Amino acid sequence: MSSEDQQNLVNYLENGGNLYIEGADLAKNLEGTELLDYLGIEYIDDGLINTIESLSGVPDNFADSLQFTYSFGSDADYLVDELAATSSELLLESQDGKGRVFTNQQENYRTISSSTVLGALFDGDSLNTKAYLMSQYIQFLTPEFTSINKYVLHNSSLLHGNYPNPFNPETTISFETNDLHKSAQIEIFNIKGQKIKKFEINPESIHERLGRNEVVWHGTDQNNKQVSSGVYFYRLKIGKKHIASKKMLLLK
């Protein structure tokens, strides 16, 4: 990475940008640079050939208890940097206890730094999937600040977080709107982006419940068949306008 590219990334972070960066020589190539300081990591060692068999989430973070088999012996397992935290926090470590993925949360930016390759992880059972891990990465890098919920509704709408979350067997999705002349929809999507359920709320019902409205999802698709455990997304539409989307987790 050129010095100009590094400076552009530093400027990007300084201005509130969030960054995911990966590469086997991530820290080695950036050792002694300002960008490495912003990532909150330090270079420990260049690693060995054919070393990483698995990655595990460390306690007390969003990857806690996650387990992945790594593409041992492949190109992705060639001289993978061993990292340590300066201002960041360890997220995933290899089976030998070496730090491989770190998160860094500062006042005006967030980063995830990985010397391993996301594409070299193998999906396992339950939530041990690349799709779920990526959804957690996205949530960390694009946080929803509670301050956006603290306003008075004037001809506007607001989607609340579902409760409970995670859930089993059902969860309540609620929203608020002052637009009494349009129908509302709560749409539910799976991790692949496929719509599996839709709730229609007509204007009469909204008018009767001015302010907060809600639907209860019982973990079923449009044909009332139970769906599997995993991450799902729900979206609020008022008329044809997409208001907001949020994430929920079904655990069985």
Topology:
Blueprint: H1 3-14, E1 18-22, H2 26-30, H3 34-39, E2 41-45, E3 54-57, E4 67-70, E5 82-85, E6 89-94, E7 99-105, E8 110-114, E9 121-122, H4 130-141, E10 157-159, E11 171-177, E12 184-189, E13 195-201, H5 203-208, E14 211-217, E15 230-238, E16 241-250
Parallel strand pairs: 1-8
Antiparallel strand pairs: 2-5, 3-4, 3-6, 4-9, 6-7, 7-8, 10-11, 11-14, 12-13, 12-15, 15-16
Q: Give the helices and strands as they follow along the chain.
A: HEHHEEEEEEEEHEEEEHEEE
CATH superfamily of the largest domain: Class I glutamine amidotransferase (GATase) domain
Overall helicity: 10-25%
How far is the first residue's CA from the last residue's CA? 45 Å
In CATH's first tier, which class of the largest domain applies? Alpha Beta
Strand content: 35-45%
* Low-confidence residue ranges: 145-155
Radius of gyration, rounded? 22 Å
Helix/strand-derived class? alpha+beta
As for the number of domains, it is 2
The strand count comes to 16
Query: What fold name stands as the CATH topology of the largest domain?
Result: Rossmann fold
Biggest β-sheet strands, sense, barrel? 7 strands, mixed
Shape: globular
Tell me the number of helical segments per DSSP (H or I, 4 or more residues long): 5
Q: Output mean pLDDT.
A: 86
Could you say what the CATH architecture of the largest domain is? 3-Layer(aba) Sandwich
Strand order of the largest sheet: 1-8-7-6-3-4-9
Describe the protein's architecture and organization.
With 252 residues, this protein is α+β, with helices and mostly antiparallel strands. It folds into two domains: 3-141, 3-Layer(aba) Sandwich (Rossmann fold); 148-250, Macroglobulin (MG2) domain (Immunoglobulin-like, Sandwich), CATH 2.60.40.1930. It has five helices and 16 strands. The chain has helices spanning 3-14, 26-30, 34-39, 130-141, 203-208; strands spanning 18-22, 41-45, 54-57, 67-70, 82-85, 89-94, 99-105, 110-114, 121-122, 157-159, 171-177, 184-189, 195-201, 211-217, 230-238, 241-250. The strands form four sheets. Strands 1-8-7-6-3-4-9 form a seven-stranded mixed sheet, covered by helices on one side. The N and C termini lie far apart (45 Å). 26% of the residues are buried. Residues 145-155 have low confidence and may be disordered.
